[in-house]
Amino acid sequence: MTRPGLIRPAGVRFAGVGTALPPRVLTNDDLAKLVDTNDAWITQRTGIKTRHIADAPTTTRDLAVQALRDALDDAGMDAASLDLVIVATMTPEMNCPSTAVRVAAEVGAKPAGALDLSAACSGFVYGINHAAALIQTGHYRHIAVIGAETLSRVVNYNDRRTCILFGDAAGAAVLSASDNAAQGCLHQTMRSDGDRWGDIFVPRSESDLPEGSPVGVDQLHAMHMNGQEVFKFAVTQTQQVIDETLQAAGVTAEELTAVIAHQSNKRILDLIQKRLGLPPGKLVINIDRYGNTSAASVPLCLNEKRRAGELSEGDLVLFVAMGAGMCWTTSLWRL
Ligand code: UT7
Fold first, then answer.
1. Best residue among 161, 262, 263 to mutate for probing ligand 1, ranked by most atoms within 8 Å of CB
2. pLDDT tens-digit profile of 271-296?
3. CA of 19 to the centre of ligand 1 (A)
4. What residues flank ligand 1, with Cβ below 6 Å?
5. pLDDT tens sequence across 154-178
6. Quick check: pTM over 0.90?
7. Same domain for 213 and 285
8. Among 25, 181, 248, 253, which has the minimal tally of Cβ within 10 Å of its Cβ?
9. Cα–Cα distance, 112 to 72 (Å, whole number)
10. Domain that holds residue 98
11. Contact between 294 and 208 (Cβ < 8 Å)
12. Residues 189, 173 share a domain
């Protein structure tokens, strides 16, 4: 909400972080009862052991509301203080209205602005990049960014190449204006390559299918992924934007307190860690417990680090994500 006479804020800070995880846990052994797979293969190729699944009637909105309430609690802030609510998701409840308007209403943030952001696994980092820039204009003081997904609704549990990867969750951050000029986003990138859209997609009708696609009309409304292509693209492109961001900000990898990366595959994370020469622990990894939760994975990691007391004011934190679109992104912060 625009506040006439507002003094242009100097910085942006994470005022609060929160999460929501549905209670049901799906193990690798559970999946082995559904498709031809096993715990050893999934663990070795992905690093995933368990993921959480939201059973009906729980929806993306429910998880988003729970995560935002948790973040507001952490911030010690009333929902009425929020100026804008951004929900990053690839599994919104409906195309119209946005999930965000109902989340804002449910938590008591009305009449804050609200919008959904569609950038798949990059959604939360795209969201904090937008929020940081908006707060820096001085027109907004408190913006909630939520990554919320119920991927189990678009996963085909007959397809062993995809169903082993994904889980449901939400994570939220409340970003606020700060008087400390040193705090905030030091550098950010947001990239896309729509020519590669067919590497991960959820078709709604036959006309959405790429020419010559082996996907049948009986496989609409389910996620299709070319895992190997996505893997290669993730490794090369994320490393490139990480290098670019660190260089632009004049920061070295050693100076980073934490790298908070989208949890797509433990092997991708290991390659990033090796390439940056990071000591164990600096790159947050929780994919073993939650799987790939798309837009929720980065705030889930941020929340764990913060609640463990491992992040302090002044720390340098690099966020990085990559996923369907293809979309990829970085966001370097001085906390
Ligand atoms: O969030 C961003 C979006 N997604 C990603 O970042 C995903 C990136 N890609 C990946 O994580 C990996 O490509 C996967 C985990 C999806 C697949 O791992 P992979 O090492 O690339 O396996 P692959 O597709 O090359 O398959 C190797 C073999 C194949 O058997 P053949 O043809 O060599 O006999 C597959 O049929 O493994 C087989 N396979 C499986 N075996 C047991 C594929 N999925 C499974 C499975 N269990 N679940």
1. 161
2. 999 999 998 889 999 999 999 999 99
3. 29
4. 37, 41-42, 45-46, 121, 160-161, 164, 200, 227-228, 230-231, 234, 264-265, 292, 323
5. 999 999 999 999 999 999 999 999 9
6. yes
7. yes
8. 181
9. 15
10. 11-178
11. no
12. no
